[in-house]
Amino acid sequence: MRFRLTPRETSFYDMFAASADNIVTGSKLLMELLGADSSARAEIAERMRAAEHAGDDATHAIFHQLNSSFITPFDREDIYNLASSLDDIMDFMEEAVDLVVLYQVEELPKGVEQQIEVLARAAELTAEAMPNLRTMDNLTEYWIEVNRLENQADQIHRKLLAHLFNGKYDAMDVLKLKQIVDVLEEAADAFEHVANTVETIAVKES
């Protein structure tokens, strides 16, 4: 493994960790949404919006550091891809919460809680993995497990779609609910993109 020690580059690790910790906050808000009645959802959406803005700030800080650093801990393209994928996760989670509020969804279909549980677990794993970028240690199990979770999310998503199209829902409700579960699936995909980027970085640095 190559070691490149410079004073400036350590800030990238802290910023990636902060971005991932913020995603954990977002996943907890998604979990909170599940148990909330319609009157409480708007306030949860406001907190999710604030978390998404914090995520944007973290991403912009990484890009600024990337543009102003002569030496980086690993490839610039990988830093950009990792930061962008982390940002995508927050964007999708915030969009899902916002759609629930905007569409005034009274009850989410059975199975959405499984989607959100997968996202919450992926968020925890991602937050645990980011500090390990400093040494590239103990990362293999992380990307294997996140890929497994994404496969699980795919199965949950397909079952949800089958449930939505079973004829028990009004056509307009199907459109609304499908958009929500599709966005949650995109969040799961974004977690896999993060894990794949981490794997790419680890392979290059080995």
Automatic annotation (TrEMBL):
PANTHER family: UPF0111 PROTEIN YKAA. Gene3D superfamilies: Phosphate transport system protein phou homolog 2, domain 2. It comes from the Bacteria. SUPFAM superfamilies: PhoU-like. Belongs to the UPF0111 family. It holds the Pfam family PhoU_div. This is DUF47 domain-containing protein. It comes from Streptomyces antnestii.
